[in-house]
Amino acid sequence: MAIKGRADRPEDIIRAAELLLAGQLVAFPTETVYGLGADATSGPAVAAIFGAKQRPAFNPLISHLADAGSVEAFALWNEAARALAQAFWPGALTLVLPRREHCAIAHIACAGLNSVALRVPSHPAAHALLAATGRPIAAPSANRSGRISPTTAAHVALELGDEVALILDGGPCDIGLESTVVGFHRERPVLLRPGGIAVEQLRVVVGAVEVAVAAPAAPSAPGQLTSHYAPDKPLRLNAREAAPGEILLGFGPGSTAEHNLSPSGDLIEAAARLFAMLRRLDLGPGETIAVAPIPDHGLGRAINDRLQRAAAPRI
Ligand code: TXA
Ligand code: MG
Q1: Which domain holds residue 41?
Q2: Which ligand ends up closest to the CA of 143?
Q3: Distance 218 CA to ligand 1 centre (A)
Q4: Are 301 and 285 in contact (CB under 8 A)?
Q5: Is residue 221 within 6 Å of ligand 1 at its C-beta?
Q6: 171 and 246 inside one domain
Q7: CA-to-CA dists, residue 278 to 141, 174, 184, 236, 305, angstroms
Q8: Residue 28's closest CA among 147, 134, 160, 148?
Q9: Are residues 143 and 265 both part of a single domain?
Q10: Is 115 in the pocket of ligand 1 (CB under 6 A)?
Q11: Could you report the per-residue pLDDT of 53-112, keeping only the tens digit for each?
């Protein structure tokens, strides 16, 4: 089993940094979800992430940086990307940019693409770890491929406890959904995955943002794979009430369901609770999880994206 460390203890951060620099895997908290980290400049270390998660090798990873100033070492900026970074970094935004020549991030982290996904996280422990290693840290969500993303250290231990050297415990994640992923391969910025920063917020900064259309045969982001974020139980969406054998997950003040993502109808609260709630309902009574309709604006768009993939047919 993994050693546990505390994200607010400097000696545990140093221990984690030493393990990363030695090529080991370390799980750490971010403001979105827990990440399964490796030194992004080491091909073998990054390969271990794919092994531990059983993640398909065509699905590229996000590399985390301590600050926006480090982007230039790895990627080519453009004007819209700079504006978004200025507005939302550190934070729940990932920019997919062209790889710079001699970029030190291992090709396997980018699944061989000539683009690289970069994010500057705001969580103090993530920042401390990045500063202590002085390296970019590749980190997907710390769950087995296709399953519910972890928002507590206990979730990570359940998913990957045997695969990581150390788990840094920083308590529950504030946002609870992965970062918003934006690409720049077209004239306008393209939303590749809705996430912790709402597309409406992006549009305030850069005007029009295209929304990528899912192409299951050739996903450009894993969120576009059919089944993802999946509990063991099947999900039924847009449920007004529970059918026999179902457990209902409600939303908002109008719901009488025993479990409610946000009794006050707050989408930010609902996002923060979504993954932990799905895990809890997966373990409790009922054969199917029925989920009430969630408004499709703001963070609701990212919540609905995750729910649709969790409800998608399993392969
Ligand atoms: O909030 C987050 O983003 C978390 C925390 C740990 O930072 N990380 C995360 O990583 O969600 P992961 O691996 O589960 O999702 C990475 C997403 C995927 O949708 C992937 O396809 C996309 O980023 N991505 C990465 N590199 C890409 C690239 N070069 N081109 C297109 N999409 C890319
Ligand atoms: Mg993930």
Answers
A1: 3-211
A2: 2
A3: 15
A4: no
A5: yes
A6: no
A7: 16, 17, 33, 12, 14
A8: 160
A9: no
A10: yes
A11: 999 989 999 999 999 999 999 999 999 999 999 999 999 999 999 999 999 999 999 999
